[in-house]
């Protein structure tokens, strides 16, 4: 009997030690998700709690006829596709350059990866100043190059405001792609390239037939991961434009925050959050699927 208790005690000890961690996860992750789903079917406006109560799918029905929501959805797609596309392309170029041997490569690597360490709010502040109509370096540079004539107000036009934010977030995100791709490039044996050179392959053929297939899994997983993160960005958009002008840079996460903070409509904000959770769940499943595919292919 005592031996059984000892065995049970030894087996249970690891789980007991993990209980605090499970409790933290439950409090800070699982509970908020369940609470979001609960509030999404409630009429819960904090300025009118007397009318709070269950309304079923009414919040979701209202979303279907909400022009601002659909505009935010369209902006979210443009924001995510443009950001991830530019970051992947430029990150690949940077990784290929940093994979070459040249003097001072270590310094260039350190400088190139610096933007990734900068917080979103600070990135927004830096680039807002750079795009400033009066003293911004971007407008001054475009004037000197003859691309624009006179001062340019980036944030008074929806298209230029969106691209200003995309440039800022791309600058911040390039290092992540570069780091991920560079680690994959360094795992490719130089013997493969030497054999290809002997067979008469040029630089483009080596890249297309050797490099790209070898880094494919890393590239796809990084794209999916950055898609999830970029779709969730709030700090840069909120700080640079607050979704304006006229909702032209408003994305769904920013709309959720504005609905919750400004209008105090927790139910409607939660309904949008549920939609975001489902969308992000799809991308997360794709990420896990590609990760498993890469492991199977490797083994």
TrEMBL record:
Residue ranges constituting the ABC transmembrane type-1 domain according to the UniProt record: 73-287
Membrane in keyword set: yes
Topological type in the membrane: Multi-pass membrane protein
GO CC term, one of those recorded: plasma membrane
UniProt cross-references to InterPro entries, sorted A to Z: MetI-like, MetI-like_sf
Alphabetical UniProt keywords: Cell membrane, Membrane, Transmembrane, Transmembrane helix, Transport
Any single biological process term in GO: transmembrane transport
Pfam families referenced in this protein's UniProt entry, alphabetically: BPD_transp_1 (PF00528)
Location in or out of the cell: Cell membrane
TM helices/strands, residue ranges: 12-34, 77-98, 110-130, 161-182, 267-288
Subcellular location, principal: membrane
Family stated for the protein in its record: Belongs to the binding-protein-dependent transport system permease family.
PANTHER family assigned: BLR7065 PROTEIN, INTEGRAL MEMBRANE SUGAR TRANSPORT PROTEIN
Annotated protein name in UniProt: Sugar ABC transporter permease
Organism: Candidatus Blautia gallistercoris
């Amino acid at each position: 009997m005592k031996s059984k208790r000892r065995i049970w005690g030894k087996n249970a000890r690891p789980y007991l030690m993990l209980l605090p961690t499970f409790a933290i996860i439950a409090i800070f992750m699982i509970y908020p998700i369940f609470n979001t789903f609960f509030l999404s079917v409630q009429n819960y406006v904090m300025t009118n709690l007397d009318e709070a109560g269950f309304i079923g799918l009414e919040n979701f029905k209202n979303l279907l006829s909400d022009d601002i929501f659909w505009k935010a959805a369209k902006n979210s797609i443009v924001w995510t596709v443009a950001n991830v596309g530019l970051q992947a392309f430029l990150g690949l170029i940077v990784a290929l350059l940093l994979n070459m041997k040249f003097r001072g490569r270590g310094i260039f690597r350190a400088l190139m990866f610096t933007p990734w360490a900068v917080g979103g709010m600070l990135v927004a502040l830096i680039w807002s100043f750079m795009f400033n109509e009066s003293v911004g370096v971007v407008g001054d540079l475009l004037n000197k190059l003859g691309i624009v004539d006179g001062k340019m107000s980036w944030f008074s036009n929806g298209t230029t405001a969106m691209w200003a934010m995309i440039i800022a977030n791309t600058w911040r995100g390039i290092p992540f792609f570069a780091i991920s791709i560079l680690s994959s490039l360094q795992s490719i044996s130089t013997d493969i390239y030497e054999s290809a050179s002997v067979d008469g392959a040029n630089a483009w053929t080596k890249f297309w037939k050797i490099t790209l297939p070898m880094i494919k899994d890393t590239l796809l997983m990084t794209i999916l991961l950055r898609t999830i993160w970029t779709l969730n960005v709030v700090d840069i958009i909120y700080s640079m434009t607050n979704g304006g002008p006229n909702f032209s840079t408003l994305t769904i996460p920013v709309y959720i925050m504005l609905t919750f903070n400004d209008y105090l409509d927790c139910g409607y904000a939660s309904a949008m959050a549920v939609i975001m959770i489902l969308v992000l769940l799809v991308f997360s499943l794709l990420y896990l699927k590609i990760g498993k595919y890469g492991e199977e292919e490797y083994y």
